[in-house]
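Record passed on here:
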Amino acid sequence: MKSARLSVPTRPGPGRRSYCTAALMLALAGPGSTPAAAQVEPVPGGATFTIFVRGTDVGREQVNLARSGSQWIITSTGRLGDFTLNRFEIRYAADWQPIELQVEGTDAGKPDDKASQKKTRIATSFALTSAINEITQNGVTNSKTDQISARTIVLPTNVFAGYEALAARLANASLGTEIPTYIVAGNEVRVEVKGISNESITTPSGIVHTRKYELVVQGASAPFTMTVAVDQRARLARMDMPTANVSVVRNDLAGVAARTLTARNPTDSDVTIPANGFSIAGTLTRPPALGRLRHPTVVLVAGTGPVDRDGTAAGIPILSQLAGALAEQGILVLRYDKRAVGQSGGRSETVTQADYADDLIAIVKWLAKRDDVDTRRIAVAGHGEGAAIGMLAGAREKKIGTLVLMGASGTTGAELILERQTRELDRLALPDAEKAQKVALQKQIQAAVISGTGWDALPEDVRKQADTPWFRSLLLFDPAVTMQKLKQPILIIQGDLDTQVPPHHAEKLGELARARKKGAGPVEIALLGGVNHLLVPATSGEVQEYAALKEKRISPEVASTIAEWLKKSQP
C-alpha cells in the first residue's frame, strides 16, 4: 500500500538507524508470550490510539474488536499525517486464521490539488497458505498473490488496528515463540519473543496492568526490535518501534497524567517543579540513612526521544536503577520526565536542546532552595543526548558544580548520525553503490535541515518529519564549542561495548576537556569493561542484543564510579 510514507531521520538513541521509512517499519509486528494453560481470549470493545513519531502526535485511529459467531472482526478508521483511513476491516477465524481483509484510504497529496490525491483500496482473501490481493489505486487494479504461513498475523501499512490480533496472540505465547507476520501485498517475516516483563501504568482512573513483550523481527532487510504491551483483557495497550521512533499508545495511557511504574526505589517520592510556564514532574530518591541535613545531589538527564524519568530502554529502567544505587552511596538523586513527556507539561513541537537545558537549569535552581541539598555539591549526570543537555546547562549555570557524561558523543550530532549509518550499512553488507546512495541521501537531508534550503529536491513527507527545531539543534550541537565554556570537573563514563556511541567518543571528549583554559576542573575517563550503551553488562553490545540481554540491571560500577568521583571532585 503506497501511501502516507513517513520518512523518519532517526534520532540517536537505543536501536535507531540514521534513516528509515516508517511506512515500512510501521507494518512489522510480532508474537507474544505468557504461560497459560487455557487460551486467553480478548475482551471485545472499542479503543482510540494516538500515533507518535519522534514524540510528536501525527495521527489517531479508532479501533473496534468484535466477536460474531466463530469469527473475530477488527475494524478501524483514522488519520496518519496526510493519509486518511476511511475503512479497515479484517476477519479472523476463532483460532486467528485470517479470512479476508478490506482497506480503503486516501492520501491527501498537495494542498489545493485534487489531482494529486491518491485513493487506495486493498481487498485480500486468505487461504491456508496464500494471500490473494486486489490492489486498486486511482481506478487501476493490480493483483498479487503471496505465499503465507497458517495463522499468520496480518498487518497492512499505516494501519495499527491489526496489532489487536497480535495482542491476542501474545496473550497466549511464551518465551521463544515465533509467529509469522504478513505485511499486506509484501513479504512475510517472523517475530520471536525475546523477553517478557510486567508493567503497570498509573492513570486518573486507576492502575492499568500490562505485560510487555520484547520482540525481534527477522526476515526484513535487517533484524530489529520492537515492544508490544498487552493489558489484562488481552487487548493492545501500546506498541513501540525504536528503530523508526514510532509509538502507538491507547488514549487512556497517552495522557500527561499517565505514568509507567517501571521501577520504584524504597525512598522515592514524587515532586513537581515549576519551569518556564509549565511544571516538570520528577522523583526524588533519598539516601536510606538521613544522618546529615544536606546531601550531595545528582540530577539525572535522560537521552534522546520521549523518554520518561526512569530512562527505560529495552525494558530496563536505567535512570531509576542508577538513582537507587546512588542513594545507597549517600547521594540525593532527582530524575524527571522531559518536557511534554509523561507527567511534565510543555510542548515538543518547537523544542530545541537549548530549551531542554533551560528546563534542567530550572530544576537545579529549585534544588538549590531545598534544605536537604548541599548547594556546593550539585552534579548533573546525562546519558546519551542527556550529556549534551548537561553540558549546555553547565555552560550557563554556576550552581552545577560537576558534570558526568555517560555514553556521550565527542562529535557533532550530524557526524554521529552519519557514523552510525555507515556502521549499520557495513553490518548489512550492502553493495558499495547502494551504501553511497543512502549516505548521500542522509547528508542531503541533514544539509537541508541545517541550512533551511534544498527541500525542493526531497519528498515533502521527509521534510515534515526532519525539518524540526529539535533535529536541527541536535545536528548542530558541537561538544568542542560547548566544552570551552565549561569550568566544572568532568567525569566521562563509557562502556567498552557501546556500539551506539563507540569508545573513541570518550577519548575525544577527554581531549576536549583537558584542552580547556587554565582553571578548569579535573577530568577523568572511566571505561567500563563488558558494558553496552545502556550501561548494562553485555556480550556484543549490539542493539540487536538488547531484547535478549540476560542481565536487566545496570553495572554496579556506574554508581560506584560516580560516587567516588564526587568525593574527589566535591570534597
Observations:
- The two ends are 63 Å apart (CA to CA).
- The CA atoms of residues 7 and 543 lie 21 Å apart.
- Residues 1-37 have pLDDT under 50 and may be disordered.
- The chain is about 25% helix and 35% strand.
